[in-house]
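Hey, weird one. I pasted the Arachidonate 15-lipoxygenase B isoform X2 sequence into the form twice and got a warning about non-standard characters only the second time. First submission, copied straight from the form history:
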Amino acid sequence: MAKFRVRVSTGEACGAGTWDKVSVSIVGTQGESPPLPLDHLGKEFTAGAEEDFEVTLPEDVGRVLLLRVHKAPPPLPRPLGPLAPDAWFCRWFRLEPPLGSPLLFPCYQWLEGAGTLVLREGAAKVSWADDLPVLERQRQEELQAKQKMYWWKTYLPGWPHCLDEETVKDLDLNVKYPVVKKTKFSLKLGSGVAELKLKGLLDRTGLWRSLREMKRMLNFRSSPVGEYVYKHWQEDSFFASQFLNGLNPVLIRRCRLLPKNFPVTDAMVAPMLGPGNSLQAELEKGSLFLVDHGILSSIQTNVINGRPQFSAAPMTLLYQHPRGGPLLPLAIQLSQTPGPNSPIFLPSDEKWDWLLAKTWVRNAEFSVHEAITHLLHAHLLPEVFSLATLRQLPQCHPLFKLLIPHTRYTLYINTLARELLIAPGKVVDRSTGLGIGGFSELIQRNMEQLNYSVLCLPEDIRDRGVEDIPGYYYRDDGLRVWEAVEQFVSEIISIYYPSDESVQDDQELQAWVRDIFSNGFLGRESSGMPSSLDTREALIRYTTMVIFTCSAKHTAVSSGQLPPPTAKGQARPEGFVATLPPVNATCDIIIALWLLSKEPGDRRPLGIYPDEYFTEEAPRRSIATFQSHLAQISRDIRKRNQDLKLPYTYLDPPLIENSVSI
């Protein structure tokens, strides 16, 4: 007869407690105890409670290995009847044996209905570190159960595969928004819709009467950044700065040779370059940069309110004066085919011609950003990483413990997007220039050229040749965050993987990488994505990429019509307004962007891990070091931002969410 003290922690979320009865079986090296009720006078397992119980084992089970948790309805009807919640969010169990140190069993899961859950003692273990059949069997059974729960499906041809669920109602409780977060999300959506309906804008299918009228819509949720943009949006320096620090800061690259289909001449740009300078000289100096939206060439477009929409595939040449000053646009061509119907627009052109050309570039930037940079790179790929993690790594695996905070709510928000945003007839289809057909085509095109190096920020910066362009805060802050994540990951990997061979021998790790390669990158070897990992260095790089993509990259790119002109000298203020989307489509998009730009509560910034999956001292020290590193980065960013007219805050660590959750 051995007495154990059992402490149980219930989550604090709304509905986390339960009226159901809970018992535990203790599994050891010499056997397994019968179910031992966790019961005392009064109600157990209320939200936020930590409760102690004493249980007696009829026989010694040896060294404790597992805790089997049983949950069943109470013998008497619940006090509130069928309305009473039966789900229970358990944070952890702590088991104190008669002799020896307490054992912590992390859980951090919802248990819904009657059933049994098996928990491992908290020390992280790679697959080759388990040498007992009972532990090996537990890993296999856990993965088999999760692979039955989380299936892959093809949403659209050529897209990364995704979770096989139709609606958020069908999701497992462990990946859903909690009640409070879901309510805040719905209220925020409702308030935006109501305000624009009351203003008579949301249902108006006509065109805007003026830019001043358009500001009525933007005022529905004004901000200092919005006011700054409204004041400066026509300026060349602001237009160029958006390629560095705007919503899509990943396309600009140094130009050493002008594309043959972009025939800019010295005479065209002489007013900007100044006397004695030439294009060739500036190309050799490295002071010219190119943003090419060629992926939009001949893309499928949409029909909104019965009117066909149009898209440009522009090329934009930018100039950074070697002696300082802002980055400025030199020339814009709105198609990939030069000729009489595709003139090169210049800053010296008539005001409205030049402004219209810049606006078509911004329109192209919106399409590429929303379909590729945001939807594909910052939502669909993180879903792949999240789903593979759940399917291939057991909860005791060190990589699971490291990565699970960076998967939080990703499956929920992406399933919701497939319901409300990118499904036929929804926001993207009814209100964007490309519609879901064009979006899908863009994603397919990018998937065919997507390369591993694009997802690794240091290599991407190097490949685009933008290491030294001034005022590129996305690069500066992003590289510092990448370095902090990489250092943290390196420390964790070094704890659990003593050699390259230990990486190669971890079959669960290799299955995780294969799952991502096959279902995320569709087995395309030209992507450069590994299908296996052979060294600790490769594992560190890969895991850093996954965490950065799911956190910093997503935050950086998500926080903030008539045909394009074929001749110059024809643009006027009224014609410019006529090229803008109709009122209802504009409002539709503004509501969606506003809704998705900020977390509806329940935030967990990068490096904040309230769910303590790691129980050993070494990884806990690494987490503390990581948090300290991020805090210093934040202090430096905030100090720099004090001197900026438009502060760059997207990669300030406290504002970076751990995961793609909105």
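That's the output from the first submission. The warning seems to come from a hidden character in my clipboard, not from the data itself. The mean pLDDT is 94.
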